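[step 3/7] inverse_fold.run input=structure_tokens len=503
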């Protein structure tokens, strides 16, 4: 009898252990399925973060306007309405070519003899026939600089015109070389910079392009020119831009990885960071600054921002907490992205899911922001207090009504929201604070696109030069300047020229 009791107890204990193991394996399987689904979305799925249609595509009835949706459903059963849409009118050739220089070609008549009387005919006008868009291939040529040498004949001491006094000889002053002891011109350097930092053309491809023009210009030479050009011309502009940025009421910040092959104390495969700081949308002049740092430590933000006491919009990285004076603001786009990633892979399970509900709250807040878009700062602040704050309050109350299992994408989204709660509320405080950090993410995109082509920086000096040149180039482009012409002016001048329209 005792043996049976022991066996039953042993079996019960074993059953409990197996049940616990089974539950753990199920949870692990669920997490792996979520990871697989997420990876499939990254490879094959849509990249746009416009999430409004994700729920509607599976006929979900919104929890916020259920009655209206039911009425629409009933109406659709009775009638069929084909939605109309607006299409942009095609631009004419004149509109496309209006900003280009024009060259006129007048085709002269070969026969100028009148068929009636035989006299010579005179030109009374011209008739338009067609437009042609002409491309002129790039070309290289050598510009030789000479200094004019003058002498005074009256100061000659003899009849042969021999000059005895050296002070009677004068030479014209010549501007210094753009890069000391080099044959690089302002036009060439600006084109190299434009190709790499705006067109994302790596130096090894530029090397081939110049070879096709019968010029052996190595990538090493071009890299050295850019490093020196950044130190001489771009750095003073970058420092003035930083001064302007730190006077802004709001700053957006983000960072991304960059690989530097030769860096003391680090392996070539170690990931360094390119940080970006920028002014928000809506300011008269966009101001975008990149800064290279070997690590992701929050001390990098502290070093750059110093005693900045305005609003800092960033993601959920805890390193920003080292800033003691800046008022940190959260990013609703990051939160929305996490709920989007938590949507079930099976679309039939999306309606009524918690991740879909969380996503709907985020979308409501963004829809309200679109309503405030053209408002003044004060008016936007009042509208946020009246409309957006109740939605946020309702959202965080809703988060407390359920507890998702740990390790799932939904649990991560919920935990992120709770951790960032006070930062996510910050945009309610002032009408100038953006609801998301999309501004910084968009600002860092040119660097990410370029990195896919040139892959890495060879040295720390190269990474630092790239940060400064990217700052000026992207800022000039964002402000609507002709980037290549701007750099020609900058490299031709010994004074800083700001990449702003009105400075």
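[step 3/7] decode complete -> sequence:
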């Amino acid at each position: 009898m005792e043996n049976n009791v022991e066996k039953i107890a042993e079996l019960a204990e074993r059953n409990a252990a197996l049940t616990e193991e089974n539950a753990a394996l199920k949870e692990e399987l669920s997490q792996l399925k979520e990871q697989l689904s997420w990876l499939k979305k990254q490879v094959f799925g849509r990249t746009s973060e416009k999430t409004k249609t994700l729920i509607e595509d599976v006929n979900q009835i919104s929890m916020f306007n259920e009655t209206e949706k039911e009425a629409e459903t009933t109406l659709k059963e009775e009638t069929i309405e084909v939605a109309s849409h607006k299409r942009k009118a095609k631009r004419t050739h004149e509109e496309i070519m209006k900003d280009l220089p024009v060259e006129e070609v007048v085709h002269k008549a070969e026969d100028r003899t009148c068929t009636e009387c035989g006299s010579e005919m005179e030109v009374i006008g011209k008739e338009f026939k067609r437009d042609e868009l002409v491309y002129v291939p790039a070309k290289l040529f050598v510009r030789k600089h000479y200094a004019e040498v003058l002498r005074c004949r009256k100061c000659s001491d003899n009849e042969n015109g021999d000059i005895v006094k050296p002070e009677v000889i004068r030479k014209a002053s010549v501007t210094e070389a753009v890069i000391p002891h080099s044959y690089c011109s302002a036009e060439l350097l600006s084109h190299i910079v434009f190709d790499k930092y705006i067109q994302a053309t790596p130096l090894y491809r530029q090397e081939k392009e110049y070879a096709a023009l019968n010029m052996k210009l190595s990538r090493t030479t071009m890299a050295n020119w850019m490093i020196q050009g950044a130190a001489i011309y771009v750095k003073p502009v970058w420092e003035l831009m930083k001064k302007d940025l730190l006077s802004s009421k709001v700053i957006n910040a983000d960072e991304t990885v960059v690989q530097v092959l030769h860096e003391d104390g680090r392996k070539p495969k170690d990931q360094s960071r390119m940080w970006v700081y920028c002014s928000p949308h809506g300011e008269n002049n966009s101001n975008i600054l990149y800064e290279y740092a070997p690590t992701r430590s929050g001390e990098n933000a502290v070093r750059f921002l110093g005693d900045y006491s305005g609003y800092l919009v960033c993601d959920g990285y805890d390193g920003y907490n080292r800033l003691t004076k800046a008022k940190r603001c959260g990013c609703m786009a990051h939160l929305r992205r996490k709920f989007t990633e938590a949507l079930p892979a099976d679309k039939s399970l999306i309606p009524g899911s918690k991740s879909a509900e969380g996503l709907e709250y985020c979308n409501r807040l963004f829809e309200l922001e679109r309503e405030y878009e053209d408002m003044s700062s004060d008016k936007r602040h009042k509208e946020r207090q009246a409309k957006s704050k109740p939605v946020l309050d309702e959202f965080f109350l809703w988060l407390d009504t359920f507890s998702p299992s740990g390790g799932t994408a939904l649990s991560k989204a919920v935990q992120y929201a709770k951790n960032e709660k006070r930062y996510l509320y910050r945009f309610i405080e002032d009408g100038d604070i953006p609801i998301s950090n999309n501004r910084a993410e968009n600002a860092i995109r040119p660097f990410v696109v370029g990195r896919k082509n040139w892959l890495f920086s060879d040295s720390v000096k190269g990474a630092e030069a790239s940060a400064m040149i990217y700052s000026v180039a992207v800022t000039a482009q964002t402000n609507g300047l002709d980037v290549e012409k701007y750099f020609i002016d900058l490299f031709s001048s010994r004074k800083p020229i700001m990449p702003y329209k009105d400075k």
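[step 4/7] annotate
Residues 57-77 have pLDDT under 50 and may be disordered.
Residues 265-445 form one domain.
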